[in-house]
C-alpha cells in the first residue's frame, strides 16, 4: 500500500468508527420531519452553482438580500463594510439602514458610502422612514431625496413604514398622513426605484393590495417572526410600558401568511397588479426557509435577512463570508433535491 492509499484507508476506517460511535446520537424523530418539501433524491445530479437571474434591473448571483440595518455609529461602519464586501463576493444586493443621519450633512457619509466596496453591478438601496418623507414634503425639500440617492450612488430608495415602532418609541414620530398617500406622492415626484418595507411586523392584506397597485420597484415584507421592533422598543422602556403594551409585539403577519396574501392579491388584481417583485424577509432563519418561501411565491423574489447577518458581521468578515458560503451551498443542494409540496 503506498502513502496515498494508506491515508485513504485510514480516513475510511476513522469515518467508519465515527459512524459506529455516533449512530446512537444521530437518531431523529419523524416529528422533526420538515413537511414543507418533497425530498426527491432520484431526479437530479448534485448541481454545482446557482442560476443568476435578473431582479430590479440587475443580475443577481445569490438571492439573499441584506436587509436594512442602521448606520451612523462606528460599529455600524464596520458592519456596513463587512456586509458590502460579502455582497460583492457573492453577487448579493444590499439595503442600507436608515440614512437619516446623512440627509442634511455629510459628516457620517463614510459609514454609508459602501458603493465601491459593494460593486456597481449589485443593487444598493438607501433607506428612510416614512416620517422623514412626510417632513421633506412639508418643508418643500423633496430634492433632498434625489441628492441622497446621488451621493450614495444608490439604485433607489427603501422607505420603511413602522407605525407601531414609532408609537412605542419615547422619541418616536407620529404620522400626519396615511403612509399610502405619502408613498403615492413620492412616486409622482421621483424617477428612481422605490421599495416599501415594514421593520419586522409584516404588512396586512389590504395594505399589501394597495401597494401592489402602485409602480413600486418592490415590496419588502419585513414580516413578523424575527426581529421585532415593538418588542425592542419595549425592552428599552419602563416596566410599566412593558406591562401596558407587550401584546402589541404579537400583532402582525408572518412571511408565509404574506406570501398567501400576495399570491391571492396577484390573482385578484390580474393586470392591475403593477408591483410584482418582492423581498421576502422577517424571521428567515436560513436557506431552507428562503428557498421554500421564494418558491412558494408566484412572482419574482429574493429573500432578506437582517439579524442573522448582523450576528456574523459583528464577529468578523470571515465569519460572515463562511455563513454566506454555506447558505449558497445549501441553496444549490435545495435546488437539486427539495421540491415544494403542493
Ligand atoms: C440592528 C438592526 C437595525 C435595523 N435598522 C433598520 C433601519 O434603519 N431601517 C429599516 O428599514 N429596517 C431596519 N431594521 C429592520 C430590518 O431591515 C428587518 O426588516 C428586520 O430586522 C426583520 O428581519 P430579521 O428578522 O431577519 O432580523 C433593522 C434591523 C436590525 C436588526
Please count the helical segments.
15
- Overall structural class, as computed from helix and strand content, comes to alpha/beta
Mean pLDDT: 95
Order of helices and strands: HEEEEHEHHEHHEHHEHEHHHEHEHHE
Unreliable stretches (pLDDT < 50, length at least 5) are none
Biggest sheet strand order reads 4-5-6-7-8-9-10-11
Rg, Å, rounded:
22 Å
Which small molecules are bound?
flavin mononucleotide
CATH architecture: Alpha-Beta Barrel
Distance between the termini: 53 Å
CATH class: Alpha Beta
CATH superfamily: Aldolase class I
Number of strands: 12
Largest beta-sheet characterization: 8 strands, parallel, barrel
Helix content estimate: 40-55%
User: What percent of residues are in strands?
Assistant: 5-15%
What gross morphology would you assign?
A: globular
- Provide the domain count: 1
Could you tell me the CATH topology label: TIM Barrel
List the helices and strands and how they pair.
Blueprint (H helix, E strand, L loop, with lengths): L2 H20 L14 E3 L13 E3 L2 E3 L3 E3 L7 H17 L2 E3 L13 H4 L2 H4 L5 E6 H9 L4 H10 L3 E5 L2 H6 L10 H11 L4 E4 L7 H8 L5 E3 L8 H8 L2 H7 L9 H15 L8 E4 L5 H10 L4 E5 L1 H9 L1 H21 E3 L2
Parallel strand pairs: 4-5, 4-11, 5-6, 6-7, 7-8, 8-9, 9-10, 10-11
Antiparallel strand pairs: 1-12, 2-3
Helix pairs in contact: 2-14, 2-15, 9-12, 13-15, 14-15
The structure holds flavin mononucleotide (FMN).
What's the gist of this structure?
Helices cover 46% and strands 13% of the residues.
Question: What does this molecule look like?
Answer:
There is one protein chain. With 342 residues, this protein is α/β, with parallel strands linked by helices. The chain has one domain (53-340): TIM Barrel (Alpha-Beta Barrel). It contains 15 helices and twelve strands. The chain has helices at 3-22, 74-90, 109-112, 115-118, 130-138, 143-152, 163-168, 179-189, 205-212, 229-236, 239-245, 255-269, 287-296, 307-315, 317-337; strands at residues 37-39, 53-55, 58-60, 64-66, 93-95, 124-129, 156-160, 194-197, 218-220, 278-281, 301-305, 338-340. It has an eight-stranded parallel barrel with strand order 4-5-6-7-8-9-10-11, surrounded by six helices. It has a two-stranded antiparallel ribbon with strand order 1-12. A two-stranded antiparallel sheet has the order 2-3. α2 (74-90) runs parallel beside α15 (317-337), α9 crosses α12 (255-269) and α14 crosses α15. It starts with a helix and ends with a strand. It binds flavin mononucleotide. Flavin mononucleotide is lined by residues 67-70, 97-98, 127, 160, 197, 199-200, 222, 226-227, 281-284, 305-308, 310.
